[in-house]
Amino acid sequence: MAEGTGGSANRSIQAQVIAEMRGRIISGEIDPGDPLSELALAEEFGVSRTPVREALKQLQTEGLVEIRPRVGTFVTTPSRREITELFEMKELLEGAAARLLAQRGRVPEIDRLQENLREADAAVARDDHERYAELVGEFHDLLITGADNHKLEAHYRTLMNQLAYSRLVKTSLSQPGRPLQSDREHHLVVELIVEKDGDSAEQVMREHVRASRRALMAGLPTPGSQSSTGTAGA
Amino acid sequence: MAEGTGGSANRSIQAQVIAEMRGRIISGEIDPGDPLSELALAEEFGVSRTPVREALKQLQTEGLVEIRPRVGTFVTTPSRREITELFEMKELLEGAAARLLAQRGRVPEIDRLQENLREADAAVARDDHERYAELVGEFHDLLITGADNHKLEAHYRTLMNQLAYSRLVKTSLSQPGRPLQSDREHHLVVELIVEKDGDSAEQVMREHVRASRRALMAGLPTPGSQSSTGTAGA
DNA sequence: CTACGGTCTCTGCCATGCAAGAGAGTGATG
DNA sequence: CATCACTCTCTTGCATGGCAGAGACCGTAG
């Protein structure tokens, strides 16, 4: 379920379309609410409507687009409630991943996490938000893969895609002092994992997710006043 | 994402096919490993191959079937490892649901849980495994819906479908003394929820899932020796 | 009897055409 | 000027047909 981002070369046409469209949506290249025409996409990719149609269908089950029968296909616009729910799930899964990783003992992912922290320290020190955002993504990624539970990973990736999380990270890190605080929390989590203290690692990781959510919400523009979908607000 | 089991009447053709096939797979009407031919299904349902094909594609993203390109479509056969992972996720999500429900305070689902327990007590008392299995399903269902997190619910249902859990419940309850023990654990969980003790509710719920998993594994026939797919055991 | 090569059928994959529903735009009417 | 009804176009839904790859089966050679 929900293949990773890789594999867009020799796969079938529809697999390429899926990968391409997924990338565009989670990167923000196309905005939530935007309509997606089967015909237009088919012409753009130089294929027929059939593979495009099936690709959109899969993206629907992944929660990235919404197909309104006989009307059209649109990029999903998560409601405020859905965002809250997604963060609740993120907290849950990442907390569990931290605990599972702690239980596994010494595995390569832990080394890579520590290496990640070293680079992150440097990025924070020189105030390089761009690079730090990348490292944050890699940190959470290592945590999940380190849990060594493929189902957990698959569900996590689905969630992150729905959140278009890569876009949000930069917002939350734009809050003053947030990168430094975030970095410290990462350090603490890894420390607890190394000590094999799964319970504490989970607890701290969950608190970290809540903190990052608060930072994100604080950085969002006028929460709830503007309902514009980006195309043409009423 | 992943619509519930309801709604198979006035929806589109492919929605009906999806619901029907999903039902057959999770009920065990068709066995893991069985091949599914687009053409055969299309003829059976009296439709063309297109909606069948799209339905199978969605079932693939739900993890119920596996489409091997140019080869065929087959009902997924969960490996032993996958089953372990699925139970890990089940423990995680149901534990979280218990905690969330406890935090919500007095909601209708709690009343229904208590009513469920009364019926379950009666079923256990008269050794009615069939009815108790139903009530167990309803119990876990109430717990999840009571958490009031639609994402949690959607992911949970996907997991349960992959496990074909409804079939497994009966196996685990066939272990001597398991129904009584299970019923007691349910009581304890609800008690903690009513007391709004979310942490303990989560902990006990997770332990309950682990216990049910142990009971299930103990009841499975020769774990790992026979690789028969069930179609024609030697 | 065993091992190998070719063919043959079955599978999903994609392209195309037609039909039906939804919505916008336009015209007439009060 | 406002409102309603109609048509017209756009969208997706479904049916159908040709195509290419993978695997099974059979015939043949050693």
Describe the protein's architecture and organization.
Two copies of one chain form a homodimer. By secondary structure, chain A is mainly α. Chain A folds into two domains: 13-75, Winged helix-like DNA-binding domain superfamily/Winged helix DNA-binding domain (Arc Repressor Mutant, subunit A); 80-219, Up-down Bundle (Four Helix Bundle (Hemerythrin (Met), subunit A)). Helices cover 68% and strands 4% of the residues of chain A. Chain A is built from ten helices and three strands. In chain A, strands 1-3-2 form a three-stranded antiparallel β-sheet. Chain A is elongated. The model of chain A is unreliable at 1-9 and 223-234 (pLDDT under 50). Chain A binds chain B through residues 1-2, 12, 50, 53-54, 57-58, 60-63, 69, 82, 85-86, 88-89, 92-93, 96, 100, 149-152, 155, 158-159, and chain B through 1-2, 12, 50, 53-54, 57-58, 60-63, 69, 82, 85-86, 88-89, 92-93, 96, 100, 149-152, 155, 158-159. Chain A binds a DNA duplex (30 and 30 nucleotides) through residues 12-14, 35, 37-39, 47-51, 53-54, 67-73.
Tag the structure with descriptive keywords.
homodimer; 234 residues; mainly alpha; Arc Repressor Mutant, subunit A; 3-stranded antiparallel beta sheet; elongated; disordered N terminus; disordered C terminus; DNA-binding
Estimate nothing, just give the exact number of structural domains of chain A: 2
Q: Helix and strand succession of chain A?
A: HEHHEEHHHHHHH
- The total strand number of chain A stands at 3
The overall average pLDDT of chain A, rounded, is 89
- CATH fold descriptor of the largest domain in chain A: Four Helix Bundle (Hemerythrin (Met), subunit A)
CATH class membership of the largest domain in chain A: Mainly Alpha
Overall geometry of chain A: elongated
Strand content of chain A: under 5%
Share of helical residues of chain A = 55-70%
Q: What oligomerization state is this entry in?
A: homodimer
How many DSSP helices of chain A? 10
Query: What is the assigned CATH homologous superfamily of the largest domain in chain A?
Result: GntR ligand-binding domain-like
**Largest sheet, spatial ordering of strands of chain A:** 1-3-2
Radius of gyration of chain A: 19 Å
Ranges of chain A where pLDDT stays below 50 over 5 or more residues in a row are 1-9, 223-234
Give the helix/strand class of chain A: mainly alpha
- The CATH architecture of the largest domain in chain A is Up-down Bundle
